[in-house]
Design a protein that fits this description.
By secondary structure, the protein is α/β, with parallel strands linked by helices. The protein has seven helices and five strands; from the N terminus they run E-H-H-E-H-H-E-H-H-E-E-H. It has one domain: 5'-nuclease (Rossmann fold), CATH 3.40.50. Helix 3 runs antiparallel to helix 4 and helix 5 packs across helix 6.
Length: 138
């Protein structure tokens, strides 16, 4: 089964229902709920999302959203090797490097993000949620 890594920005799109991005990432989440794909996420995304969303809504509401999202995805591991690779990579942004190497180590087939240019040295496909859905004829 295909392993789809979600970058933090698209998880935020989903949990904050940000338009115009929500519809396409919600469809990707539905595919995971239907067990057609496996969603993968970095543990860093959970902490970043909690930090960002609690600026706009109560902490308990944010934690409930994260709990529900966690049911749909598997959480990747971030370890010393990933941090070393990120620190010594040619990525301009360290967080993007950590996300990328986390996806690679977790055998993900694709990364879904809205910032594809941040992953220009990637060895796996980088797509928006809409591009991914189009690629599978959804």
């Amino acid at each position: 089964m295909i392993r789809v890594f979600l970058d933090t920005n698209v998880i935020l799109d989903l949990l904050a229902e940000r338009t115009p991005f929500f519809d396409s990432i919600a469809k990707v989440a539905t595919l995971a709920d239907q067990k057609k794909i496996i969603l993968m996420a970095s543990p860093l995304s959970f902490t970043t999302i909690e930090y960002v969303l609690t600026k706009f809504e109560p902490s308990e509401s944010v934690l409930n959203k994260l709990r529900k999202f966690k049911i749909l995805c598997k959480v990747c591991e971030v370890n010393e090797e990933i941090i070393d690779k990120g620190l010594n990579s040619n990525f301009r942004d360290f967080e993007d490097a950590v996300q990328y190497f986390t996806a690679i180590q977790s055998n993900c087939n694709i990364i879904i993000t809205r910032n594809g240019k941040d992953f220009k040295h990637a060895t796996i496909p980088i797509m928006t949620a809409e591009e991914y859905l189009n690629s599978i004829g959804f």
